[in-house]
Amino acid sequence: MVQRSYRTWLVSLALLGAILDQTSKYGIFAWLNQGSSRVDTVNSSARSFEIIPGWFKLYVQYTDKPAGESMLRSVSSDRLPHVNHGALFGLLNEQEGGANGLFAGISILAGVAIVGWSFRRAAAGDRLLCAALGLILAGTLGNLYDRLVFGGVRDFFYWYGGFDWPVFNVADCCLVCGAVALLAHAFLTHPAPDSTPARSHAQSASSLEGEVVTLNGEAAALKPATVIVPAK
User: Fold this and answer.
1) DSSP states of 131-198 as a string?
2) 40 given a catalytic annotation
3) Among 15, 141, 175, 196, whose Cα sits 20 to 30 Å from the Cα of 133?
4) 72 is in which domain, residue-wise?
5) Does 230 map to a domain?
6) How does pLDDT run across 61-113, given as a tens digit for each residue?
7) Is 172 known to be catalytic?
8) Looking at the domain assignment, is residue 202 inside a domain?
9) What is the pTM of this model?
């Protein structure tokens, strides 16, 4: 029986997640950059839009550095955005170039490892595992693009009601959801029982039957023939 492969789930989730991440980043940074009415009331170098007043808003910051002539950098604004040089939730953000290069390298290694893992037969046939790896790969690709193009990750989701949460993005959401799915896979799924011993026993029994039949055949061949002498 041919085992079904869910590798297309992994690839589809990775591509859709990465595209959604970049589309949201470029779109929101460009939208908030238009008009003075979106200038943040606390930080004049930032732009914001309240989603849930007092709790959650879109929030972007810009630097004084020009975006340059590259379309990849200047499509949203003529100034470079403020970026997170560290990892998820601002880890090592203050290290700038060193941290960005480190996490870019880790992202590349993680992406290669996920692609390689997906070619394992057991992984490709596991729907939940492929979905988890696809989400993690989506977040990895989305943030890796930012690190290579902007020297850091662009963030814009800001939850500040009740708890001042670090600013995050769609790629971070994919990473967290993928990690949760991976943990669920580890704790909730069990490997299929190995049917190899049963097959081995069946094959052994079949071999013994074959030997018995062969021996019976040989015994029949060795049995002396009965000679009938006609009566005189």
Assistant:
1) HHHHHHHHHHHHHHHHHHHHSSB---EEE-SSS-PPPB-HHHHHHHHHHHHHHHHHHH--PPPP-HHH
2) no
3) 196
4) 7-188
5) no
6) 999 899 888 899 998 888 999 998 876 655 555 556 678 888 899 999 999 99
7) yes
8) no
9) 0.76
